[in-house]
Structures are given as C-alpha cells and as structure tokens.
Write a structure and sequence with these properties.
The structure is a homodimer. By secondary structure, the first copy, chain A, is mostly helical. Chain A is built from six helices and two strands. Chain A has two domains: about 80 residues, Multidrug-efflux Transporter Regulator, Chain: A, Domain 2; about 55 residues. Helix content of chain A is about 65%, strand content about 5%. A two-stranded antiparallel sheet of chain A has the order 1-2. In chain A, a hairpin with a 5-residue loop joins β1 and β2. The N and C termini of chain A lie far apart (about 60 Å). At the A-B interface, α3, α4, α5 and α6 of A face α3, α4, α5 and α6 of B. The first copy, chain A, binds a DNA duplex through α2.
Amino acid sequence: MNIGAAAQASGVSAKMIRHYEAIGLLPPPARRDNSYRDYGEPEVHELRFIGRARKLGFSMAEIGALLALWRDRGRPSREVRQLAVRHLADLEQRIAELRGMAATLAQLVECCHGDARPDCPILDELGGAPR
Amino acid sequence: MNIGAAAQASGVSAKMIRHYEAIGLLPPPARRDNSYRDYGEPEVHELRFIGRARKLGFSMAEIGALLALWRDRGRPSREVRQLAVRHLADLEQRIAELRGMAATLAQLVECCHGDARPDCPILDELGGAPR
DNA sequence: GTTGAGCTTCCCATGATGGGAAGATTTAGC
DNA sequence: GCTAAATCTTCCCATCATGGGAAGCTCAAC
C-alpha cells in the first residue's frame, strides 16, 4: 500500500505520516524497489491510533508513550490511566483559562453599545489604568 | 526609559516588546545616543494594552486592529464590538472542542480500572476498529 | 578600572500542520 | 507505445507567540 492509500485508509494525511516517521514516532516503513514507502494493515492500524489520540488532544510526546504502551501486551493499565488522567487535567485547565477569557469578554461585549459612537468599555478596559 | 524598565512597567517582556516592533505592531521607538530604545508613558500604555488583549486571547492580528481603533479617537464602537464578538465566538468554539475531548476522555478514564492488569478501555478505544 | 548588569542584533527552537518546488515514477488514456 | 496526469520522493519554508542564547557594545557601581 502506497502512502496515499495508507493516508486514505487511516485518515492521517501523507504529509503527517512522513512527519511522524521523521520525528521517530513511527518506525521507518518498508520500501519498494522504486523507493516508495510500503504500508500494511498493522501500520494503518497504528496511524488510526495516532489520529484518534490526536482527536482527544494528546500531544505527540504523549502519543509516543501511548503507542509504546499499546505495543506492550503486558503493560499495566495503571500507566495508561495515569497518562490519560494527566492529560484530562491539562484539558480542564485549558478550558478554565478559556472560560475566564470568555467570561470577561462577554461582560465587556454586553456593556458596549456597539454603534457609531466612539466610547467603548472594551477599549476602556484594555487601555485602562493599571489595577 | 530603557526597554527593561518599560518591560517592568508594562508587564510585557523586553523580548516581546522588540518582537512587536519587528512585526510592525508597534512603531519604532525613539533611540538614545547609545542606540538604546527609549520609551515614555504613552508607549508603556500601549504595551499594557497589548498585554491585556493577549490575556483575553486576542491574536496579534486582532490586537493590531484593536490598537488602530484605540488610537482612532473617532472610531465607531460598533467595530470594536464586532471584533470582540467574533473573538468570543472563537473562544466558545475552542471551549466546545476541548469539552468534547474532555468528556470522551473522562468517560474512558472512568472505565479503566487502572491497576496492574493490561486490559484497558482507553487503548481499546484508540486502537479499535474503524467506526 | 574592573566587574556585572543591561542593551543591541541575529539565529534557532518550540508543536502540529501544511504549502510548494524539483525531480523520479507510475498509471491512464489514446 | 507514447504522452499526460497523478503520485511518489526529499527538501525548504511558513504558521503563531514566545523564549533561549551568542557575540558585542555600553553603563553603573564599587
């Protein structure tokens, strides 16, 4: 299977497949005589794994660890869970940060009449005196 | 005021002040005889503005627009509000995405016993058959 | 007057993704 | 069988905001 077909089958772009290989996340695949990369079902399976983990927001480093655990038939599920719990906390923190921003901004937006007049609580807040 | 003092006074690092200048967000400041950048209160004021806008998650491009509106005494508040509303929608979308990830992950974490045994719903989900 | 702190510019790195060029090869249409 | 289009290869560059660090100049303090 060429890289294009593997991309199609896994939902990971060819560009990204090469990239994951370049950063060592994936082992170099077999090559055909024409130097084209050659993938089989197991490789596509790993690619799909990576794609799913990305969709859950895991970083490349975390995915590397997850892949290693996945390949290790005897891994303790504790390690997987710990990794996931840490990532979950990270997600929650990012959500909290964004929510803080959104809350402040929503309040400002609500106070701004938003017409042709120049006075604007949003700019006042941004340019206001140091608190 | 040297760049270090301006950084101190505004809460924006010297590194970032130079960067904002380099990308054209800020006009080149006055220079002393020793070629040191020289800042006054107005410049520090703008830097604080930028810092606050960053804390609300605005992009550099958006901050450029906000700065232009701020400098324009006759701007219609409508434009400021529109910009803020758009950014707010962007924030909400990012929050929704992260929440989706967190919800899925939380569910998986809950299902994983997380002990010495190797079976793990988290890895099962990531490596499962295409849905 | 030496030393340490602060300033200058310039280059490089991050993390995940993509665009695009130049060149080789395969595939499809006729 | 020939030509054109698609696909592959590698390599470089861009994003976005931030920072690290080097090499060299300048300033302040003791």
